[in-house]
Design goal:
Layout lengths: L2 H26 L13 H4 L1 E8 L10 E9 L5 E8 L5 E10 L7 E7 L2 E10 L5 E5 L6 E5 L6 H13 L8 E2 L5
Antiparallel strand pairs: 1-2, 1-8, 1-9, 2-3, 3-4, 4-5, 5-6, 6-7, 7-8
Length: about 180
């Protein structure tokens, strides 16, 4: 085999390997055992959210404070995602992605992608009656976010969401509280 063909073959194999790491675990997760909210009004869900707490995740390892997510509905039905945070040195870090609804009945199950062809589950597990707070996770229970429309959350609301997350099988002892400076 010629060297350039061998390189292409190795790159293709590596891409399929990475895709398998994303797809295979999702195929065996407890999808049916993680309940989502019965219905999400995406027009009300859209807008800016402040992270109150999260489970540790690689992509947010450099976020030190002021973590936000902005969701904007697009005419094609997809959702534009803009995540921002302040790094340890105060610099603004940004990640842009796209979400699509995968459960048309509840609109509570989405797939979010920040770089093609990879995507992750984004399931809305709880939302306040006025969309003032939300809790988002995924069926493998490796990721969890507690979000608020304001940079701070009432302690009773936070405790209620942590207790619900724990009852759903999330390891809430690993939650990282977000720091809001603005």
């Amino acid at each position: 085999m010629e060297p350039h063909m061998r390189t292409q073959f190795m790159i293709s194999g590596f891409i399929f390997f990475l895709a398998g790491l994303v797809i295979i675990p999702q195929s065996f997760g407890g999808e049916s055992t993680l309940p989502v909210v019965p219905k999400v009004d995406l027009n009300r869900y859209a807008g800016k959210w402040h992270e109150i707490a999260r489970l540790p995740m690689y992509f947010q390892r450099n976020c030190a404070s002021d973590v936000t997510a902005q969701y904007t509905l697009k005419p094609d039905g997809k959702i534009e995602v803009l995540n921002q945070c302040r790094g340890k040195n105060g610099s603004l870090k940004t990640a842009k992605g796209t979400a699509k609804v995968v459960d048309k009945i509840t609109q509570a199950k989405l797939k979010v992608s920040f770089f093609w062809p990879f995507s992750g589950d984004y399931w809305i597990l709880d939302v306040g009656p006025d969309y003032e707070y939300a809790m988002v996770g995924e069926p493998g229970r490796n990721y969890l976010w507690i979000l608020s429309r304001k940079p701070v959350m009432e302690p009773a609301t936070f405790e209620k969401l942590v207790n619900k997350a724990k009852s759903l099988g999330f390891d809430t002892s690993r939650l990282i509280r977000a720091l809001a400076t603005q």
